[in-house]
Amino acid sequence: MAAACCAALAAAGSVLLPNTSAYNQTQASYWSLQESSLSPSCFAQPQTAQQAANLITILTSHQACSTTDFAIKCQTHAPAAGFANIAGGVTIDITGLNSISVSEDHSIAYVGAGNSWLDVYAYLDPYNKSVAGGRNGAVGVGGLTIGGGISYFSPQVGWTCDTVQNFEVVLASGELVNANATSNPDLYRALKGGKNNFGLVTRFDFATVDITRILGGNLVNDIADRAAVFAAFADFTTAPDYDVHASWVLSTIFNATSKAWTLLNVPVYTLPDTRPLVYEQLYAVPNISDNLALTELHVLANQTATPPLNWGMGTATYGVSTAFLNEIFDIVNATIYDFNLPGGVAWSIAFEPLPTVFLAPGAGKNVLGTTPADGNQMIFLTSPFWTDSSADAEVHAKTEEILTKVNAAAEKAGLLRQFEYANYADYSQQPFEGYGQSNLEFLLQTSKQYDPNGMFQKRVPGGFKLPGGQWW
C-alpha cells in the first residue's frame, strides 16, 4: 500500500523514490546513522504550505494511504531512529519550506519551518536583527522550536517557542490555519513545547531581537582544574542578578580509547564586549586555549559538520551546587571509564544554566511547566557518539545507567527537578510527564480538539507521543 500511497502523493508535489540519486542524497542528509538506516517508501517534498496541506489531505483521505504511517523531516538533528524518518512509510521532507522575510519595521521574522538556523541568521544579521534560535546553525527551525528551544538570547526572551507570535500549521484535516494569541489560542499554546502531536507546522513568525557583534568561541581547561570551573559555573548560574546577555555551555568530553577528558567551555555574550565581567571567575582559571572573540552570529553558528555517526542523548534538570557538579563528574567517570567499543565511543557530558530570568517570559504561556518559582537550575545532557551501529543497545543501556545514578544522587541531595527538556531527551524518556499534570491534560484535550482521530498520535509514530492519549 505504501507504494500506491507514494503514487497518490506525487499528484501533490515532488516525490522521491528509492534507487534514485535524489532519494539517496536525502537519505544521506540525516545527522545520525540511526535515522539514515531507515528507508521510507518515498520522500514527499512540499515546496509551499499549500502543497504540505495537500499532502496531509491525501494521507488522511486517500484509500491507498489509509494504512501508511509517515514521518516529518526537517534538518534531522534528533538522533533517535524514527523521530524524523520511517521504515516503509512516507517521510515528508519539509526543507523546501525555506522562505524567510521580515516585517517592514523588522520586528517580526517570517521563517519557513524547513530552514536551518544558519539560514535564518545569515538573512537577519545584515538588518542587525536576530531571533532566539538554536546555537548550532545546522539545527532545524521546526524541531527545535516546537520542543521549547534554547538560545543565546533565552535569558532575555525565554525559550525559543516563547518568541513565536504565530504558527502557520496544517491540521490532520488538511486545513491550513494560523495559531496565535487571538486565533486558535489553545493550539498556539500547545505548540509551544508539544512537539509533533498537533499538526505540521509550515511557518513560524518570530519576534526579533537587536544584535550587532557578539562574543563567542571556546575556552578549554585542563580537567584537573574542573573543581574551579565547576565553582565558577555554579556561581554564574545561581547569581541573584543574572546577566541576561550571558550564556555558558560547560562540557566534559571523554574519549574511551585514550581515556582522556577534555573540559570545554562555550561562553557567549550577546553584546560587543570582549571581556564581560560575568565570566571573570572562569577567566581566572588557567586555560589551555582561549579563542573568544567578537563575531557575527551567523559566523559563530556555522559549526563544522560532524561525520556520519551514531548519536545518543539523555537529559535531566537539577538544582545547582559546586559539590553536586563534582559528584556528577565522579559518577559519570566511574560509570564509563572502562566502557569501550570497537571503533571507539566518546561522551559529551554537558551542563547548561536554566536561570529564573530564562523561565519568566513563558511561564504559564507555554506548556513546558517551567516557572521562576523553580529557582535557578541547570540542564544536564549526556550525549554519546560512536561508529559501531551494532552497539546501539549497549550504549543506550550505559546512558540509562548514567541517568539513573545521577538522578539518584540528585534526589538524595534535594536537587532533582521534574522537567526533562524534550529536545535533549532519550527516546525512552517521557518528557511530557515532566510538564506537570495540568499541562499534560491540556495537551491531551487540545490534541482531541484539533486531531479528533489521533492522526498525529497513531500515524506519526516518531517523536514523543502524549502519554494517556488513547481517547480516539
From TrEMBL:
Residues 36-211 form the FAD-binding PCMH-type domain. Residues 1-22 form the signal peptide. Keywords: FAD, Flavoprotein, Oxidoreductase, Signal. It holds the Pfam family FAD_binding_4. InterPro entries: FAD-bd_PCMH, FAD-bd_PCMH-like_sf, FAD-bd_PCMH_sub2, FAD-linked_Oxidoreductase, Oxid_FAD_bind_N. It comes from the Eukaryota. Transmembrane segments: none annotated. GO terms for molecular function: FAD binding; oxidoreductase activity. Belongs to the oxygen-dependent FAD-linked oxidoreductase family. This is FAD-binding PCMH-type domain-containing protein. It comes from Neohortaea acidophila.
